[in-house]
């Protein structure tokens, strides 16, 4: 008899890594249903894959980024190895810091394309003594065991393996899971303080942190020109933030830097389709200043100065447009909501409602769907109106002025141009946005 439960996956991954973390040995056992193939994400490089072995002892047929499982039956296992020596790969997929390593999961994780809620896919890591693993997946409670989550198989994610401990940090009723590679204990405490400050600023937008158990990885990269030369949010498994840092710089430089608040603000919204990046970069760029202003990390005047400087860059630089176009739209929505409700509603209250109705979300949102949802939650047409106006601008052939018309909204708040008149006090309406 064919039934749904009979076709659910029950797959068990045993992942074994030995010092000095140069290779991952993976054994995959299929208890019930066997998928037709395993895939390594959207990754087009198979150079790291070695020694695939099927139940019959012969190697598996791998092509076109598919590890084919024809002939594998329920209750059988396969195995393979993946090299963690980045030199063979075309793209940078591993980062080492001392004995610790950060690895793109598509380097070693071959998984079914269509994992659903009925499926159980468990990953158990067998690590050298004293080592731990940081993953974006849900911990089962058993040591180093996780359940693979149902985000699309081609969303990027990373794990870190090393002699660190994953530190849970409480942020407004939620927890973030912080892994800090190759650092002294003193420095780790300083980094936790830095991340905690930024995450608390994000929670300060509406009183709660947007996701629970977000994976945070901090990787020292040697001497760089700034404290946080690179930060990034990934969505595979769940939401995670990755910070690559210059550990030689004083911690105050980290606290003065906007990157952490920017990346963690990305978590306020789910994955937005890549061709509407401005709606995702916009929320992070808006709140990197607004949230820091609200939290007192920068003064309200500085928050506005930075916001206006960003808008100015958005109007003049193609590269900056995607960040500040979105930020301008969210600013206008925030202002309009506050104006209509005498400050009872704001972008923050809408995001809070959104978090309750629609997160965690394991699918990609179009800009239109997100704006419709925000409208519904605010009983308004504010978001779609701004969105369609911007879509029209983007559609204009040879659009020279793609930046939203923010000056009228700024003028209402007593700001006459994209640079603040420092001889004037900020108006109450302008202060409401950032305090
Ligand atoms: Zn960003």
In words, what does this structure look like?
- The protein is an alpha+beta fold and 435 residues long.
- The chain has 3 domains: 139 residues, Immunoglobulin-like (Sandwich); 104 residues, Zincin-like (2-Layer Sandwich); 168 residues, no CATH class.
- 33% of the residues lie in helices and 22% in strands.
- The protein has 11 helices and 19 strands.
- The strands form 4 sheets. Strands 4-7-2-1-10-13-12 form a 7-stranded mixed sheet, with no helix packed on it. The chain has a 5-stranded mixed sheet with strand order 15-16-17-19-18, covered by helices on one side.
- The radius of gyration is 24 Å and the shape is globular.
- The N terminus is likely disordered.
- It binds zinc ion.
- Zinc ion binds next to helix 3 and helix 4.
The geometry reads as globular
List the total number of helices. 11
How large is the radius of gyration? 24 Å
Bound ligands, named by name, code or SMILES:
zinc ion
Mean of residue pLDDT values: 93
Distance between the termini: 62 Å
Main sheet: strands, sense, barrel? 7 strands, mixed
> Unreliable runs, pLDDT <50, ≥5 residues?
1-5
Strand content: 15-25%
Order of helices and strands: EEEEEEEEEEEEEEEEHEEEHHHHHHHHHH
The total beta strand count reads 19
Task: Give the strand order, joined by hyphens, for the main sheet.
Answer: 4-7-2-1-10-13-12
Number of domains: 3
Indicate the percent of residues in helices.
25-40%
Q: Which structural class best describes the helix and strand composition? A: alpha+beta
